[in-house]
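Subject: sequence -> structure tokens, single chain

Hey, anyone have a minute? Need the predicted structure for the following. Not urgent.
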Amino acid sequence: MNATDPQGTQGQDPDKKIDDWVTGDEPATGPQLSYLHTLAREAGEELPADLTKAQASQMIDRLKQASPRTGDAGYAGGLGGGTAGRADP
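Reply:
Had a minute. Here:
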């Protein structure tokens, strides 16, 4: 950790494959589960019990892609598929 890298992440690969995560088999985190509950509710899906961090991350990615608010199914005006910054008609 240093002044230019306060989180100590320099040299780490942010796109590391989920299968390579050291903590992927640990239980899903609170923030993961909270976000998953929101996405699953919007998608009309139920969450499986006892998700691992890796499973939760994969499910978040899948549900985000299907969400009209955050994924490819929604507004794709160069803003990552979300609606932020879009003016209402």
